[in-house]
Amino acid sequence: MPLSPEHRAEIEAARATPRQTLRAVSEGMEAHLYRAHEVLDHGFVRVIDYMGDDAAIVQAARVSYGAGTKHVSNDEGLIRYLMRHWHSTPFEMCEVKLHVKLPVFVARQWIRHRTANVNEYSARYSILDREFYIPEPAQLAAQSKVNNQGRGAVLEGAEAARVLAMLKSDAAQMYDHYEEMLSQEDQQGLARELARMNLPMNIYTQWYWKTDLHNLFHFLRLRADAHAQYEIRVYAEAIARVVADWVPLAHAAFEDYRMGGTALSAKGVAVLKRRLAGEAVGYEQSGMSKGEWREFEAVWGA
């Protein structure tokens, strides 16, 4: 279970004491504050704090004194224009701080998104909990034969059971040794900062992660994509649902132009123009590489 009854009680106590404020408030985001959205077997995402809303984006773009305009349609049109033309600074006026509990190997992917402020649970100071990510059977898959960084067929039967048993036994044994190595009252042992080095990559860690909306959209564009690794994608999808409630106009524009849209190279534009003019253009006439042509066909057809 990601949260203990004690943790849930702390969250509900925090939510039970709202305070009056003059700052911009997103009613959609207020519903998410402090609540834990469970991810994987022991993970979660929680909103700790946020700044700004859709109106803050508009206000910054117009450098106005009020909260957007009197007409939501005007604000929506401006936000879509900003997204369509790849403006960034107005979206940077909104920020969010998340509390995330995640496996270490997921954290190592996540931290590559460097434009953020991060503070991680310290295994030098504290002892890590005995919690490991163990995949559901549907996520146990072999290496893809066509994608060097993806999965192929799902394991079945005895092979799936063999791999799952190793994952569980290895994690348990490594944690047992971790505990046995730690300095305790009856033995000198190792310092926590050394004993942790034997722990597996599927053990859970936690951090506070603060970023602005522009960089969060970049994170979501890559990690909520169908091609992203499942274990980080489910975190991105949970965050995307929160963002949709926080800044619905900006999120709708992001979904339309970034997640649902596609970019074309100059060669791609030329091929489309030639096709619209009635010319039959294939790979040999496109001037593209094989990889580019496969991606082009996946969107525009053969």
TrEMBL record:
As cofactor, the record names: FAD
What Pfam families does the annotation carry? Thy1
What family is this protein classified in? Belongs to the thymidylate synthase ThyX family.
Q: What class of enzyme is it?
A: transferase
- Which of this chain's residues are annotated to bind FAD? 89, 112-114, 120, 212-214, 218
Q: What is this protein called?
A: Flavin-dependent thymidylate synthase
The record's GO molecular-function terms, alphabetically, read: thymidylate synthase (FAD) activity
Partners and quaternary state? Homotetramer.
Stretch forming the signal peptide: none
Cite the entry's keywords alphabetically: FAD, Flavoprotein, Methyltransferase, NADP, Nucleotide biosynthesis, Transferase
Task: Tell me how the cofactor is bound.
Answer: Binds 4 FAD per tetramer. Each FAD binding site is formed by three monomers.
What residues does dUMP bind to?
109-112, 120-124, 196, 223
Reaction equation(s) it catalyzes: dUMP + (6R)-5,10-methylene-5,6,7,8-tetrahydrofolate + NADPH + H(+) = dTMP + (6S)-5,6,7,8-tetrahydrofolate + NADP(+)
Q: What EC identifiers does the entry list?
A: 2.1.1.148
From the UniProt record, give one GO term of the biological process aspect: methylation
Q: Enumerate the InterPro entries for this protein.
A: Thymidylate_synthase_ThyX, Thymidylate_synthase_ThyX_sf
Supply the PANTHER family for this chain. Answer: FLAVIN-DEPENDENT THYMIDYLATE SYNTHASE (PTHR34934)
Q: What does this protein do?
A: Catalyzes the reductive methylation of 2'-deoxyuridine-5'-monophosphate (dUMP) to 2'-deoxythymidine-5'-monophosphate (dTMP) while utilizing 5,10-methylenetetrahydrofolate (mTHF) as the methyl donor, and NADPH and FADH(2) as the reductant.
Quote the pathway field. Pyrimidine metabolism; dTTP biosynthesis
The active site consists of 223 (involved in ionization of n3 of dump, leading to its activation)
Please tell me the species this chain comes from: Ruixingdingia sedimenti
